[in-house]
Description:
This protein is α/β, with parallel strands linked by helices and about 325 residues long. The protein is built from 14 helices and twelve strands.
Amino acid sequence: MKRHIFSALFLCMLTTxxxxxxxxxxxxTVSVGVLTGPSGIPCAHLMEETKTLAGAExxxxxxxxxxxxxxxxxxxxxxxxxxxxxxxxxxxxxxxxSLTVIAVCGNGMLSLITKDPSIKSVxxxxxxxxxxxxxxxxxxxxxxxxxxxxxxxxxxxxxxPNNELAAxxxxxxxxxxxxxxxxxxxxxxxxxxxxxxxxxQEEFKNISGMENFPMTVIVARKNFAEQNRQxxxxxxxxxxxxxxxxxxxxxxAGEAVERAGLGLKAAVAEKAIPRCAFVYEKPADAxxxxxxxxxxxxxxxxxxxxxKLPDDGFYFK
Length: 317
């Protein structure tokens, strides 16, 4: 009899232990997907200093592009990630509203750079060939919008990879390029004759009346965010603190970026930080600007946002 009682008690304890182990998942571990390059810069300090969030262990994965992190979000391997707004909108619209935007963390930081001293306005680009960093992304559609609204006809070229644009401009292979940070900084560090001829954010403002546009958002899997609000809140607080520290300490932040393997040398990151337009905004506060940008994608390439503006559920409350 005692043996049966002991066996039943042992089985109960074992079942409880297995249940507890199986329940360990999103409540006790959080996976954050960080993009290498400028959007990852404020994460370097976060990655070194923040190992837990509201009692949950945090792991960080780095990705060279949004196309690599999206599948991880879809299959649940990543809980929180950084994405361009249109990629987030497309994933939301096309994948059963499976994610939600929890913050906007980067505004526009696009420049038209050149050695040509005659370029002083958008109209001076008429008839020119402009290399653009990234087809099918914000740089392309923002450039198309600015050109069209100024009635300027220019050819856009996407044949040169982003990381080779600076070298191509220095060598004379190309004459004009629209690039985000840190590519403008890299080009100017390597050749002092290269200058920022047009601030694309200013051009956007002149047309739209809006100060700027979002270029990077923080998203979370919707189920994860709704079930783990304290973890999301803790992450956003930690990220905001890390961003503020980064802006105030560019030299130390640059060193942290290089240590973290985020694709930038310390000196480049340090010089790029003041130009990177890092922000921290709640989704509701940025919604108007977000929709203004997404409407550009709808105008020039509806498929890039799955054909419509996301509804209210896209913006986490």
